[in-house]
Amino acid sequence: MALKPGSFEFNLFLTLTLILLASKLILCFYLLLQIYRRKKETGKITFSFITSAFVLMVCLFISRLIFAYWDFFLTEFDPNKFYTYPNVVYWKCASLTMAIGFSAFFFALDKNILKFKFKGVLAYIMLTVGLIQLFYPIKDLQDFYVMASFAFILNLLAIAIPIIFIYIGKNAPQYRKSAYLIALGTIIYAIGTNIVIESFLAFLERIWGTNTRIIVYFLFLILKITGLSIFTYSISKFVRIFSNK
Known about the structure:
Layout: H1 8-42, H2 49-75, H3 87-113, H4 121-135, H5 141-149, H6 151-158, H7 160-171, H8 176-194, H9 198-208, H10 212-243
């Protein structure tokens, strides 16, 4: 569905995106404040779990900023422009940035919380998917949809986050509340992310019409802001308890 600049739908989507970007930026500063407080307590800054959460949030902010430029100014939501040069380059960079953020988070989660039980494999898979999307030669819309569908792999792997924290909460009562809330925030965020994957949106539009995108974008905004807020706040609480054990 192509959108004409200045139209109601275009302005609505742009407003929702700006609200989401502002929310992510606020959460970035919140996590940065937690890192600063941690530095005052320990006297040093390390690549800790809370630092990886900050890196993830920064990457999510940057990737959404690039996606916004791609959506509103390069393609105007016109599928025929998705795979053309240089538009597709911006999409590739945004996808890779998001993959890097999740890779950093998974690596720190594995190293600092799980004592390398997964040997970093989940982080490496995340990064590999992002690199495949970057280097795969997209020549037509079908190629684009195939690469866009790779985002489902990232989201499937992200399911490991709530599973891990539900397991932690179940077996460690002192972490239970914050661990369960991290899991809940991740699930809510993942739902919001999946409903705006372009191949999925195209499928919904074929069934229910072009107005479906407006409803989905409202859900996208509400779910992502809610999920990220719960996730960020709960991580800060979890880290404080974990560091004081």
